[in-house]
Amino acid sequence: MMRIGIPRALLYYECYPMWKTFFEELGAEVVVSSPTTSEMFNSGCSRSIADICLPVKVFCGHVLSLVDRCDYVFIPSICSVEHKVYSCPKFIGLPDLVRATVPECPPILDPDIDVNKGLRQLYHAIYKLGRPFTRSPLKVKKTAEKALQVHRGYRAQMQRQGLTAPQAIAKMFPQSEPEIEDDGFASDMTIALVGHPYLLYDEYINHRLMLRLQRMGAKVLFPEMVAEEELRASICQLVERPYWSYEEEVIGAGGYYLQSDVDGIISVAAFGCGPDSLMAEFLQRHARRMNKPFLNLVLDQHTAETGLVTRLEAFVDMTKRRGNTQVKSFYLSKLEEEGQEGLRALGIPNMANLAAAFRASADILNVSLIAPPVT
Ligand code: SF4
Predict the structure, then answer these.
(1) Burial of 326 (0-12, 13-18, 19+ CB in 10 A)
(2) Distance from the alpha carbon of residue 135 to the mean position of ligand 1, in angstroms
(3) CA 157 to CA 201: how far, in whole Å?
(4) Tens digits of per-residue pLDDT, 115-164?
(5) Residue nearest to atom 6 of ligand 1 (CA)
(6) Mutate to test the pocket of ligand 1, among 57, 196, 267 (most ligand atoms within 8 A of CB)
(7) Residue 218: beta bridge partners?
(8) What distance in Å separates the CA atoms of residue 27 and residue 296, rounded to the nearest whole number?
């Protein structure tokens, strides 16, 4: 039985059920790399040039971990899966990049996926992918249809049942995912995470972001939990039409959650990623306009856990206080008491002895200050 290696990185969380179904239906055994470890991370980084984005470095580490465990590694070259919507160049050149950085890699199955070249080319790429396993184009066609059906079921499951990608994969293939901790944390706020699945679900590179937020009392939502029509509608509203593949998980999900009643949004981006830098900035501006708490986390090879935790704590704390109606009503009642409903409030955070300086300045300017409640 031929063993096909699938790295647990980049498109794994998006496509694994479809890929696994395809290869297993054709009689192959699928071998998946383990969740990212420090060894994989370091080996991937040591093989890549510094400029390349973090997820690609991690991907190389996963490929290295598969070297002696499979006969082929599956690394598609994905240019476009939707007409005139493009992947970033790293996805297009991924098989070549791996060949250059991991020369000991087993032969690569690298179908060229580009719907802009027409359906004929796409079918040809799929038949070519199935050729090492069967000579029957009909069998490949039926297998591809089944795999696509599984993919649709996987997406629908996450949307309908509010599951994360690892939870949905674990439900479909119980042996595939490590046991998922469910500590049953109580939550008093909701935070939406937006970004690529390979950043949101890789606990090594995001320093267990979801678990940390849950421990701080937040219910965490993901882009995969939003219906595709809603994601599309948000994209149309914000940017008219998508240009990048995966715009749904950033602009679409971000736009949707900005309109929803979540308490805050955290965008997780990769350092060195062109599309992310534009999309995250765009969302941040919208969030500012809509007065919604927004945190932009950029992960790179050197992101320290302590720094990330400090930023998360500050963000969660700020979001909780902002939602604290007691504090809000304190200011409103003060303004009403003074018959100054029309007055604009200027918020100044408490900063050591600076309050004294603000008070003195206000006196000089003949402005009345309302003291904040003790924190
Ligand atoms: S979209 Fe960004 S993070 Fe993802 S592979 Fe491309 S450059 Fe890297």
Answers:
(1) exposed
(2) 35
(3) 17
(4) 999 989 999 999 999 999 999 999 999 999 999 999 999 999 999 999 99
(5) 88
(6) 196
(7) 189
(8) 44
Contact in structure between 228 and 247 (CB atoms under 8 Å): no
Give nearest CA residue, ligand 1 atom 2: 273
* Cα radius of gyration rounded to whole Å, the chain: 24
10 Å CB burial of residue 360 (0-12, 13-18, 19+) is exposed
Question: Which residue in the block uniquely carries the two structure tokens 């029309």?
Answer: 342
Q: What is the pLDDT of residue 29?
A: 95
- Amino acid identity, residue 198? Y
pLDDT band of residue 337 (cuts 50, 70, 90) is low
* Helix 38-47 × helix 54-66 angle, to 10°: 110
Name every protein residue with a CB atom under 6 angstroms from any ligand 1 atom: 53, 55-56, 88, 90, 196, 270, 273, 275-276
> What is the percentage of the chain residues whose pLDDT exceeds 90?
55
Mean pLDDT of 249-257: 91
Do 32 and 58 contact (CB within 8 A), yes or no?
A: no
pLDDT value at residue 59? 95
Kindly report, as residue ranges, where domains of CATH 3.40.50.11890 are found in the chain. Answer: 3-172
Give 189-322's CATH code, choosing from 3.40.50.11900, 1.20.1740.10, 3.40.50.1010, 3.30.240.20.
3.40.50.11900
DSSP H helical ranges for the chain: 12-25, 38-47, 54-66, 89-92, 94-101, 119-130, 137-161, 165-172, 197-200, 209-215, 228-239, 253-259, 274-289, 305-322, 325-337, 354-365
Nearest CA among 271, 222, 272 for reference residue 249 = 222
Mean per-residue pLDDT over the chain, rounded: 87
Side chain identity at residue 356, one-letter code: A
The yes/no answer on whether domain 3-172 falls in CATH 3.70.10.10 is: no
DSSP string covering 224-255: GGS-HHHHHHHHHHHHSS--BTT-IIIIIHHH
